């Protein structure tokens, strides 16, 4: 099963989500991330945070949703701007959910305050991904309305 995490720039939240998911996922489940307007580089603080959490970072890079090698079954948007954008037509019947997460890369303040923002975003995404993996492990069909509702609620129930 292919999962796609989307943020407009694909430099921070979606990258972190991709890495967390892939570090915890069962065989046969894989996540990638992309953006509608990707930046050229992944946010360095995001990479440093993942390394600190012992999550593999090899191969993580910012990419366009137009350059994906496979079509995902589930698309999760993490920022409000990506949630409101029209996804490419090839994403067709993919299930969609929005799990809004504040962008830690725009936080201004001391180094400690910025680190705290990254940590808070990481913890929220980690919690949601753990709930998502638990949901995926249940015997649901992707077309089951209960699965779809629970998938969407993960971004609401914190």
TrEMBL record:
Major enzyme class: hydrolase
Domain Phosphotyrosine protein phosphatase I per the UniProt entry, residue ranges: 1-135
Chain ranges passing through the membrane: none
Protein's GO biological process: response to arsenic-containing substance
Domain of life: Bacteria
Pfam families for the chain: LMWPc (PF01451)
EC identifiers of the protein: 3.1.3.48
Residues annotated as signal peptide: none
SUPFAM superfamilies found in the cross-reference section: Phosphotyrosine protein phosphatases I
Keywords noted in UniProt: Arsenical resistance, Hydrolase
Database matches in CDD domains: LMWP_ArsC
MF terms (GO), sorted A to Z: protein tyrosine phosphatase activity
Database matches in PANTHER family: ARSENATE REDUCTASE (PTHR43428)
The name this protein goes by in its record: Low molecular weight protein-tyrosine-phosphatase YwlE
Origin species: Acidithrix ferrooxidans
């Amino acid at each position: 099963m292919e999962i796609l995490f989307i943020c407009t720039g694909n430099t921070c939240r979606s990258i972190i989500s991709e890495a967390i998911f892939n570090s915890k996922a069962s065989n046969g489940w894989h996540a990638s991330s992309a953006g509608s307007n990707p930046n050229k580089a992944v946010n360095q603080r995001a990479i440093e945070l993942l390394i600190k959490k012992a999550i593999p970072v090899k191969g993580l890079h910012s990419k366009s949703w137009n350059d994906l090698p496979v079509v995902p079954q589930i698309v999760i948007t993490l920022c409000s701007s990506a949630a409101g954008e029209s996804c490419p037509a090839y994403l067709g019947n993919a299930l969609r959910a929005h799990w809004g997460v504040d962008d830690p890369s725009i936080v201004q303040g001391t180094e400690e305050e910025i680190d705290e923002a990254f940590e808070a975003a990481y913890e929220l995404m980690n919690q949601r991904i753990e709930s998502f993996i638990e949901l995926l492990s249940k015997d649901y069909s992707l077309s089951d309305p209960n699965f779809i509702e629970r998938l969407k609620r993960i971004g609401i129930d914190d």
